[in-house]
Specification:
With 212 residues, the protein is mainly α. The chain has 2 domains: 99 residues, no CATH class; 108 residues, no CATH class. Helix content is 44%, strand content 6%. It is globular and about 55 Å long.
Length: 212
């Protein structure tokens, strides 16, 4: 149960930071007292304080050690909010200079690259998994011709996520810096049953983007 909770915290942290940035859509400063008059005119100062308060609140609510949220808009100075600690051993506060794993933010770049390739005519979103990666998922061989790039982008392929595998989860918690080869992650997904037939459901699966 404790390990499941820790994994949930990782996912929740990513979700919270993403939606904070989307819904509030403003830049942020970890030290609000340093904002100049011109900067305050660029962004709604009171709104910025509300976002900082919300981030502080969610870090506590979801038991997240630390978080950073940044918003970068054309023609505006970047703003960054921080909350919580960067180290559980000495309670060092999170700073704007701390580095975080990019995690699922890579999906944005992968999806954009796929769409660019489709626009250039180098692939079609309706191309099948079997067409580009024949035999990559032996357990899904009977449906691989029905799994499309579009479905993998949209998480409707039915392919199981390697992150829902208990062995992977335990290893992530005990050895978080271990580096898996993409083939290893796909092999884990291949050992798990599909969620549904291709296009039959929505189920978030990290395996989709490993394959992409």
């Amino acid at each position: 149960m404790k390990k499941d909770r820790l994994l949930s915290r990782v996912v929740l942290c990513q979700i919270i930071l993403f939606w904070l940035a989307i819904f509030h859509g403003i830049g942020i400063a970890s030290d609000l007292q340093t904002i100049t008059n011109s900067e305050a005119n660029s962004f709604h100062y009171s709104k910025m304080r509300q976002v900082q308060h919300l981030l502080d609140q969610k870090v506590v609510e979801y038991d997240i050690p630390g978080a950073v949220v940044g918003v970068y808009l054309p023609g505006q100075a970047p703003w960054v909010f921080t909350a919580g600690v960067a180290s559980l051993s000495d309670d060092r506060p999170v700073t704007r200079q701390d580095k975080f794993r990019i995690g699922s933010n890579t999906k944005t770049f992968v999806a954009m690259t796929i769409l660019q390739l489709a626009q250039e005519g180098k692939l079609s979103l309706d191309d099948s998994l079997a067409q580009w990666l024949p035999g990559i998922l032996p357990a899904y061989e009977s449906v691989s011709h029905a799994i499309t790039i579009r479905q993998m982008l949209q998480h409707t392929s039915g392919i199981a996520s390697f992150t829902e595998d208990g062995t992977w989860g335990n290893n992530f918690l005990t050895n978080p810096y271990y580096r898996y080869a993409p083939e290893d992650l796909v092999a884990i997904a291949n050992s798990r049953a599909p969620y549904c037939l291709p296009g039959g459901c929505f189920h978030y699966s990290n395996t989709n983007y490993v394959l992409l």
